[in-house]
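Query form — protein DUF1579 domain-containing protein

QUESTION: What is the three-dimensional structure of this chain?
INPUT:
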Amino acid sequence: MPSQDELPIPPVLFDAATGELLITASASSSKHDFDFYEGKWQLRNRKLKAKLENCTEWLEFDSTQEMYRVLQGLGNIDNYLATFDGVPFEGMSVRLFNPKTRLWSIYWADSNAGKLDPPVVGSFDQGVAHFFTQDTFNDKDVVVVFRWDARDKENPVWSQAFSADKGQTWEWNWYMYFSRFGSN
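ANSWER: The structure tokens for DUF1579 domain-containing protein are given below.
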């Protein structure tokens, strides 16, 4: 089984007329894709100190997260709690499954900005998921990918990468290593 860093990112495809990302669901995508994630988790975070600046310095810190299902399983919500430089930080994700497209949309909001970010959209295939969006970071147009590696459902890994060249190259800038609360 390839390690987290050896997993390939699927090619990023754009609509020639609109420039929008083209995202299609895997054949196995379902509303049960995130069932493994329900409950309380301890996280070990590894985050680049600066994104898209050729930074090699990583910040490491602990956090917690709790997820529960909503909308009869078509969605879920999590609450992320951490402390940065002694200041409490809270984030939340809202994940919604569209049964017609079989795609998940993941929305993020946090206590710094107080707004929902554009959703990342995608699906799982054989325990690994990639979710994409177009966004702006420090006045640069970027493609963002979230990867969920849930091949080990008791120790999943979430990671994030940015591409400033439409998916030709990627900079991984955040990893979260999950373990069940109280399992250490």
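ADDITIONAL NOTE: The mean pLDDT is 91.
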